[in-house]
Design brief:
This protein has helices spanning about 5, 10-30, 45-80, 100-130, 245-260, and strands spanning about 135-145, 145-150, 155-160, 170, 175-185, 190, 195-200, 205-210, 215-225, 235-240. It has about 260 residues and is of the alpha+beta class. The protein folds into 2 domains: about 5-130; about 135-260, Immunoglobulin-like. Helix 2 packs antiparallel against helix 3 (about 45-80) and helix 3 (about 45-80) runs antiparallel to helix 4 (about 100-130). The structure holds copper (II) ion (CU). Copper (II) ion binds near residues 188, 223, 227, 231 and 234.
Length: about 260
Amino acid sequence: MGTLGDVHAPGGVGRVPRRLCVLAAAAVVTGSCEGVPRFGIPDPVTEDGDRILSLWQGSVLAALAVGAIVWALLAWSVIRYRRRSGPSEGLPGQRSDNVKLEIAYTVTPVIIVAVLFGFTVFTQEKVTAVSSRPDVVVEAVGYQWQWQFRYPDEGVVVTGTTEEPRPTMVLPVGATVRIRLRTTDVIHSFWVPRFLKKQDIVPGLDNEMDVVVKDPGMFPGRCAEYCGLDHARMDFRVEAVSPEAYRAWLDQQRSRATEGAG
Ligand SMILES: [Cu+2]
């Protein structure tokens, strides 16, 4: 008759999670999980987004592996030790302790959590880092209840209204863009889902983020912090274009501003 000790050999419990940790680790370090599902998060369009996606995929795979092992062990014990018809076999082996097993099931989760923690810190350091020399600086100013995008080095300002079209932050593809986050009133939050990160805009706090958009396209963004009556109308767009198209857009904005002033 199998006892707990025979069945759950420490090596058997520890080996699979360790293998998965290695798999998840490889994914995070290499920065991509080709062919692995995204498990519900948007397709990232920034370099940091790729790192965040890999961390998410590694974490979900590790969780699924642990879940599969737990469910398999539960199913096994339910089936193996079910009440049967016919003469009773009596109770399975009853052991009050198994030191090796207890050490294994304490140390294994600690290792898994430590590995996940390590990769989380590693990724966080990467995605919150800001370059000392960004290529483009944009100030995203949130106010009740819209956005203003200022390009201080270019003399260009885009001011949103709650009517269509929503304000568009135009960025060049492949450039390191510093987004300075400012508010004139309450707390808002700058969120472009396909960047896979968002950051609060807090009065009196100079928050900022760097993004490098990989591919051209139009990406919706919104305020992600409830900020009052028309919070839901604080939509905007980020349009990533080629560096040439970006320069042309700046020129167009400047000439439009001059015409307006004239
Ligand atoms: Cu807001």
